[in-house]
Design a protein that fits this description.
The protein is mostly beta strands. It has a single domain (2-249), classed as Jelly Rolls (Sandwich). It has one helix at residues 2-13, and strands at residues 22-23, 33-37, 50-53, 56-59, 72-81, 83-92, 107-114, 130-135, 147-149, 153-157, 160-161, 166-167, 180-187, 191-196, 199-209, 229-235, 240-249. Strands 1, 3, 4, 6, 10, 11, 13, 14, 15 and 17 form a ten-stranded antiparallel β-sheet that branches. A hairpin with a 2-residue loop joins β3 (50-53) and β4 (56-59). The chain starts with a helix and ends with a strand.
């Protein structure tokens, strides 16, 4: 009942939208999306990592022999977003790629308030952003999803700077490779909620440049608020699919 009441409050807050839901993936092509894979130029879809198939964006490693630190991101670059409600479904499948780091088993993410991919360094692993980390269960034990990770950023939780790069949510663990719905409600740099299958699982505030993994060309921006940015999805070494990617702007 508590989570249900919280969701009602969040839905009421998001009723102040300026637009209705807008689909940002057409289900058939990667139009409007730009790919940046580590060690490769912007726009090079190395080994066909990202594919539009069957209404989904699929992260595929069929043409890889080893991972070789080829962290990748696909950015929606038609528009920057500031205040918004984003919703998508994700699903892991297949086997973890040889050579990918152990922590990346059933691991991906939605990157919020990203820098534009044309500002990323050629060997940069992750864009400066606030990451909604997406995890799958490993068959036993607890492994929450919709956590917060902070590549090149700092955030506050309970009015205090988060001292770890990743902070777990209080979500359930999803051991089966089923579709999981994740939503984020973002109010500029001020307030962000993570929601999994209708339940609010994490809230944080005050997104700004800082922490670890700040790229050289962002060092002069440390401490500056991240008020808006682009949205991207990750490829980190485990096949994953995304569908029903939609957004509505909030006032």
């Amino acid at each position: 009942m508590k989570n249900f009441l919280i969701l009602i409050v969040l839905v009421c807050c998001s009723c102040n939208q300026t637009e209705e839901w807008q689909t940002i993936f057409d289900g058939n092509s990667l139009d409007g999306w730009d790919i940046k894979i580590r060690y490769h130029e912007l726009g090079e879809n190395y080994n066909n990592t990202f594919k539009a198939e069957d209404g989904q964006i699929n992260v595929s490693y069929e043409e890889y022999d080893e991972f070789e630190d080829k962290f990748g991101h696909i950015f929606y670059t038609k528009e920057k977003f500031k205040n918004y409600h984003l919703s998508l479904d994700y699903k892991f499948s297949g086997e973890h790629l040889k050579g990918a780091p152990g922590w990346s088993v059933k691991n991906s993410g939605i990157m919020l308030h990203c820098q534009h991919p044309n500002t990323m360094l050629i060997d940069q692993e992750f864009p400066v952003s606030a990451e909604t980390q997406l995890l799958g269960g490993l068959g036993e034990g607890k492994r929450s999803t919709a956590n917060i990770c902070t590549p090149g950023t700092d955030v506050d939780i309970d009015s205090k700077r988060a001292k770890q790069h990743c902070i777990n949510s209080n979500s359930e663990t999803y051991h089966n490779d089923d579709w999981v719905n994740v939503q984020v409600i973002v109010y500029s740099d001020s307030l962000i909620h993570h929601i999994v299958e209708g339940n609010k699982v994490l809230t944080y505030t005050n997104i700004r440049v800082g922490g670890n993994k700040v790229p050289e060309n962002f060092l002069d921006k440390v401490g500056m608020p991240l008020e808006d940015g682009y949205i991207s999805l990750q490829s980190e070494g485990h096949p994953v699919s995304f569908r029903n990617i939609k957004i509505k702007k909030l006032q």
